[in-house]
Amino acid sequence: MRFLKLFLAAAVFVFMLSLNVFAQEEKKEEPKYGWQNEVVAGLNLTQTSFDNWSQGGENSLAWQFNFNAKFNNDQEKYNWSNTGKLLFGRTKVGSQDSRKSIDEIKLESVYTYKLTPYVNPYVSASAQTQLMKGYKYTDTTNFVVSNFFDPAYFIQSAGIGYTPNEDFTTRIGAAVKETVTRDYPVPYADDPDTPEIEKTKVEPGMESVTNLNVTLAKNILFTTNLQLFSNMKAFNEIDVNWDNLLVAKVNDYINVNFNLKLFYDRDISTKRQLMQSLALGLTYTLL
Question: Do residues 173 and 122 make contact, with C-beta atoms less than 8 angstroms apart?
Answer without folding.
Answer: yes
